[in-house]
Design brief:
Length: 111
């Protein structure tokens, strides 16, 4: 069994390939992005969102939501961090694709 030289991730994870230096893909990704100025990138995103605010419209953007935790968090983040007014759209077909938890999450977004 091989271990990542940085974080000790094992090579038992499906499809994992270590770099020639012995690091896992997650550590390689972190190394590649560690020098990014995240505050600057946040400001760029906020400036971009400003271009789409529309005081004469009911909504500023459209977001597809499934009822899962990722789309739930995305919708709340866009509302609270970017201060946009999103129209949330969901399509579950056939209807049995929607789980009880998903329905509860969508209800929580509506409230």
């Amino acid at each position: 069994m091989k271990y990542c030289t940085e974080c000790l991730q094992t090579d038992t994870r499906p499809n994992i390939k270590f770099s020639p230096s012995g690091t896992c893909p997650a550590c390689d990704y972190f190394e590649l992005h560690k020098d990014i100025d995240w505050d600057e990138r946040s400001q760029i995103l906020l400036d971009l969102a400003d271009q789409y605010r529309n005081s004469s419209a009911q909504y500023d953007c459209i977001i597809g939501v499934s009822g899962g935790k990722d789309s739930f968090r995305q919708a709340i983040w866009i509302r609270d961090f970017l201060k946009l007014r999103p129209l949330l759209v969901t399509v579950t077909y056939p209807p049995h694709q929607l789980t009880n938890i998903g329905a509860d999450n969508i209800s929580a977004l509506i409230e």
